[in-house]
């Protein structure tokens, strides 16, 4: 069964893009909210949760704008991306998540992203 694309936006009030970038683009930042531990060797990243490790390759990034990974074993057109933008009207920072999910797992995957973003908001102090 083909995976479906998920796009979720989160508004992070009063968070500078540079601060958010440090939380989504480096091992230490990602280890505070996305996984228990993150390490990388070149473009290969390993994300660990409670002893389970998932590998992903860094596909592309643009400083202060987006970072995109492909999970090991994923189809070539599947990826997960964290993208930063600023709402022109409210001047709030927006984090857009793009991911791919099996149709019968989509609700669970969105719930997982929601929980992870709540952890990110805690670390950023933007509740």
Short synopsis of the structure:
The chain is of the alpha+beta class.
Task: Characterise this structure.
With 127 residues, the protein is an alpha+beta fold. The protein is built from three helices and seven strands; from the N terminus they run E-H-H-E-E-E-E-E-E-H. The protein has helices at 17-25, 27-30, 106-124; strands at 4-12, 37-41, 44-49, 52-62, 66-71, 80-86, 93-101. Strands 1-7-6-5-4-3-2 form a seven-stranded antiparallel β-sheet. A hairpin with a 2-residue loop joins strand 2 (37-41) and strand 3 (44-49). The mean pLDDT is 95.
Label this structure with key terms.
127 residues, alpha+beta, 7 strands, 42% strand
Work out the oligomeric state of the chains in this entry: single chain
The total strand number stands at 7
Q: In percent terms, what proportion of residues is strand? A: 35-45%
User: Distance between termini?
Assistant: 38 Å
Question: Strand order across the biggest sheet?
Answer: 1-7-6-5-4-3-2
Largest sheet: 7 strands, antiparallel
- Supply Rg: 14 Å
Q: Kindly state the mean pLDDT as a whole number?
A: 95
Secondary-structure element order, N to C = EHHEEEEEEH
Class of secondary structure makeup: alpha+beta
By DSSP (H or I, 4+ residues per run), the number of helices equals 3
Categorize the overall geometry: globular
Low-confidence sequence ranges: none
Provide the helix percentage: 25-40%
Topology:
Elements: E1 4-12, H1 17-25, H2 27-30, E2 37-41, E3 44-49, E4 52-62, E5 66-71, E6 80-86, E7 93-101, H3 106-124
Antiparallel strand pairs: 1-7, 2-3, 3-4, 4-5, 5-6, 6-7
